[in-house]
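Async update (no meeting this week)

Hi team, since we skipped the sync, here's where things stand on the single-chain job. The sequence we agreed to prioritize is pasted below, unchanged from the tracker. I ran it this morning and attached the output directly underneath so nobody has to dig for it. Comments welcome in thread, and please keep replies under the output.
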Amino acid sequence: MDELENEIKKAVEVLLSGGTIIYPTETVWGMGCDATNEDAISKIFKIKNRAQSNSLVALVSSENMLNQYININNLNDWELNIYNDKILTIIFPCATGLSKNILAEDKSAAIRITTDVFCKKLIKKFGKPIVSTSANLSGEQPAKSLASINPAILGKVDYVVNLPERIGSGKPSTIVKLLPQGKIKVIRE
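Output:
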C-alpha cells in the first residue's frame, strides 16, 4: 500500500468513528469530519473556537455524490461555467442528508466538488461528504502547509494526515450562492 492509500485508510477509520481530521485540500489545509454527524461537527466548532451560527463547507467527490445531497433538478439553470477556472464552493438553497449544524440559518448548504486527488479518494472511500474548514483557530490565517498549522489545533484533532509535502494554493475558494430564476450572488471572489 502506498503512502497516499495508507493515509486515506487511517483517515477513513477516524471519520467512521465520528472523529476529526486535519488534511490537505486544493486550497488550504483543512479540518474535517463526517458532514452527516452532528456530534463530530460540534467538535470542529469547539476546536476552532468558532460560533455554531457560522456554517461550514461540505466536500463531495463528484457531481453524482453532490446530487444525492441537493434538491435541485437542473444545475444548468445557473450559468456556473463562467467559474470553470476557479475552485468553486456553491451555496445551495436546500440540502438533504447533511447534519443540521453544517447548514446556515436559512437551511442552505455550502458544498464543493473537490478537485484534489487525495480528497477525492478519501471521500469516495468514506462514501459520504466531509466537512472542510480551514485548519486554524477562528480569526487566524489559514494554513497552506502542514508545518504552518497552529500546534494547539494539531493536538486537538483525532488524526493529522501525514502528507507534509502537500501544499494548497493558499487561496480560499470562490463562493457563490444560487438564487431563484437562475441568479447567482457572489459571496467571495
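Quick observations from my side:
The mean pLDDT is 91.
The domain at 3-188 is CATH 3.90.870.10 (DHBP synthase).
Reply here if anything looks off.
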